[in-house]
Amino acid sequence: MALAEHIPIGSTLSCVTACLGEEFNGYVLSVHEPSKTVLIGSPGKKTGTFHVHLINLTQLQSLTIKETTDLSEYKFMKEQLLTTDVDQVTKRYQEAVKEARRRGLNVSPSAQKLFDKLYKMYPSCHWSKSDIVIPEARATIQAPYYPVNCLGEGQGVERIRKILEYSVEEDQ
Tell me: the pLDDT tens digits for 101-126? Predict the structure, then answer.
C-alpha cells in the first residue's frame, strides 16, 4: 500500500522526531514516496502566515495521523505557498544544516561536549563519522579524543593538543 494512502493530503499530523525530540503538528501538504518524506504546514503566529516543515518519516519517534479535516484551510495554505519568503526559508535551511553538522552520530556525550568547545573556537570544524576535523588547524581528532589521538602537524595541531590536555584534566 502506498504511503500517500496512509497519510492523505489535507489530514492533520502530529509527530515527534527521534533525534532531538521536536514536536511538529500541521496539515499534510504533500507526500514524497521515494524519500519517505511529508511536507506539513501549520498556522504561524502572525495572521495569514504559516510554517512549512519537511518531515523525514524514517527519523520519527512517534507519528499520529488525525482525521481528514476541512480542505478549505489546506487550499488557503497551498495558495500561500506562492508567497513564501524564500530568503527566510533559505536561512532556516542553512541554520538546520549548520546545526546538523554540529551533532555527531553515535558519539559519547563527552565527545560531543569536546566538539562543542572546539566549535566555539573553530566554527568550521565538523564531524567525519566519529572523527573531529578542524580545517583551520589542519587537525583531525580520533576517538577516544586524547592528545595522542590528534593527527596533523604544525602550530594549530599543538594548540588543539593543549585544549585536549585541558579537557582530559577537566573531565577527571
Answer: 788 888 888 899 999 999 999 998 99
Listed residue (59, 1, 63) closest to 26, CA to CA: 63
Question: What's the confidence (pLDDT) of residue 135?
Answer: 93
Per-residue pLDDT for 1 more than 50?
no
Q: State the amino acid at position 127 in one-letter form.
A: W
Q: DSSP assignment, residue 105?
A: T
Cβ atoms 137, 154 nearer than 8 A: yes
H runs (alpha helix) in the chain: 3-6, 71-80, 86-102, 109-121, 155-171
- 125 and 145 in contact (C-beta within 8 Å)? no
Q: Hey, what's the cell of 7?
A: 497519510
The grid coordinates of residue 47 equal 495572521
The four Cα atoms 162, 152, 107, 39 give a dihedral, to 10 degrees, of: 120
pTM of the model as a whole: 0.51
Q: Answer yes or no: are the C-beta atoms of 121 and 135 closer than 8 Å.
A: no
